[in-house]
Amino acid sequence: MTLPLLEATGLTRHYLMRRGLFGRPVEVRAVNGVSLALERGRTLGLVGESGCGKSTTGRLVLGLERPDAGGVAFEGQPMPPPGTPAWRALRARMQMVFQDPLGALDRRMSIGAQIAEPLEIHRIGDRPERVAQLLRDVGLRPDQAGRYPHELSGGQRQRAVLARALATEPALLVCDEPISALDVSIQAQVMNLLVELQARLSTAILFVSHDLRAVRQVSHRVAVMYLGRIVEEGEPDAVLHDPAHPYAQALVSAIPHPGRRQRRVLLQGDPPNPADRPSGCAFHPRCPAALPLCAQEDPVLKPRPGDGRRVACHVAQGDLPARKAA
Amino acid sequence: MSEPLVALRGLAVDFGGAPALRGIDLAVAPGEALGLVGESGCGKSVTWLAALGLLPGRARVTGSVRLGGEELLGAPPAVLDRVRGGRVAMIFQDPASSLNPVHRIGRQVAEALGLHGGLRGAVARAEARRLLDQVGIPDAGRRLDAYPHELSGGQSQRVMIAMALASRPELLVADEPTTALDVTIQAQILELLGALRRETGMALVLISHDLGVVAETCERVAVMYAGRIVEEAPVGRLFERPTHPYTQGLLGALPPLDGPRRPLAAIPGGVPEPGAMPPGCAFAPRCTQAEPACAAGVPEAVAVEPGHAAACLRATRDLVPA
Fold first, then answer.
1. A161, part of any domain
2. B-chain residues within 8 Å CB-CB of A260?
3. In this model, does residue B322 exceed pLDDT 50?
4. Predicted confidence (pLDDT) per residue in A116-136, tens digit
5. Helices (H) and strands (E) in chain A, counts
6. Are A156 and B186 a contacting pair at CB < 8 A?
7. What pLDDT, in 10s, does the model give residues B105-155?
8. Residue A165 lies in a domain
9. Which domain CATH number covers A303?
10. How far, rounded to the nearest angstrom, does the alpha carbon of residue B266 sit from its chain's CA centroid?
11. Is A274 helix (H, G, I), strand (E, B) or coil?
């Protein structure tokens, strides 16, 4: 196998947060030792609930933020420090798509001018023809280049954002909740477009989303995050149909599903505050299968004996005899 | 169906020439759970804001809204004040902005109890505590003294539900109650709404863009598009035999959880602007099955079978007497 396009090892990002006016600064570990690899033309789906660190992971991967520990390698080379000319040159090959297309576009510029902007910055020639081609690629018409963002619908705006991201022919696209702000029928259009563009351009995609359905639709692999860690990783169908980690099980069973009325695994309580991380496995206070060991020892993400699914859980790994489900 | 609790007839709303609602007929039976589904701008929220007289003055509302036989449209403020938060309570998408950030939550729940039950002081506080307990807030007694910022999103929505329950409403209108919440918290809130309905016997109108949420919570579903109801059916029937092409499109656009992964059946184009409604059926320009006759007139809802109606020329052609 060739080298993966992107390899992140042990990414860690801490923030300092002050509680109250005179409070002592508390360390918040937004991302706490995340390793992932992504190959050309493949999609890795990163799922989890708000505050689990999935967006921060996306920003770390692009070098928009510097990790406190760990590192990112792009095509085998370590990521240059942000702001340097080498990093800027690399940024043409990695692009990001955000949740809110209206917020990502400049309302005072026509979409054609915005799509041409990365071509200017990175000095790529033949602009009008390339802009027209990009618009066609994302399913817009070249004559729409003169339109302003407010003249477009939500789906068309996200298409324009995608066209701009694709302008420099990036090898990697980080999509942070690219469809969450869109209506159901428009979400389907954008998901289809992503899959189709990837097939044509061999772009690698890191697809950050809270929506397991969408992740299954577009991803080749999926990683489930909880409180700054990847707790399970595998093929989308394997994780969706037979989740190994109790958190992944709860997440899958929480997907509302027409026709299915089976019992949900209802989690107790709210996701914990990243500033106040529980000891041992961060999920143990809410876990229906937790053992005494789980409060003491943090499980590592490793292949499970048997099927090789990567999961960070003492119970799923059979580190101890599983307690009978009540 | 027995005597409906709420009956909307020909409800229409116009914002300065742009129609937001174009004739809604909808009934909610006592104790029933009705889902209202549609994309943004289809009028699903406006329907209930109009019914409860909560729209700004520039909105022109016509038609009829009857609550247990009493007409609400154009009713004096005193009548509406008794109904709103009384017989009909409403909760919204963003619980944090519905709570007053400078008051403790116990006081806010007690205020609702004072307005609608006349409870004061220690009695109100005890009742507020019981309500917080009922909606599953742990350690309710101490949480009474918490400020809204000390609560998580899921807990804030629980507090909103507790306030809505204060008047023992006959109908709870929940407008996207879980959209701002994480999926595992969404599951908790949906479970809570179901349990409360069983305990209190209140009716529920769940407004959502998420077909899955509605499928798990409701008994009957109405699908809205561009200010009209295009299909209405019992929940199981709607998902098994969707009749309107828009409903079929919504279901097809939902990524499946199993089976092979193939391109989704996305609905082409986008929702029409309220100021520029296409003639005839508003969905026709996006409809793969449209024919010239669809542009001729707005299709009326026709019963496909008892309890299942669709407003589509093609779907109901054979049923219309020639």
1. no
2. 216
3. no
4. 999 988 888 778 899 999 999
5. 10, 12
6. no
7. 999 999 999 988 888 899 999 999 999 999 988 888 899 999 998 888 888
8. no
9. 3.40.50.300
10. 24
11. helix
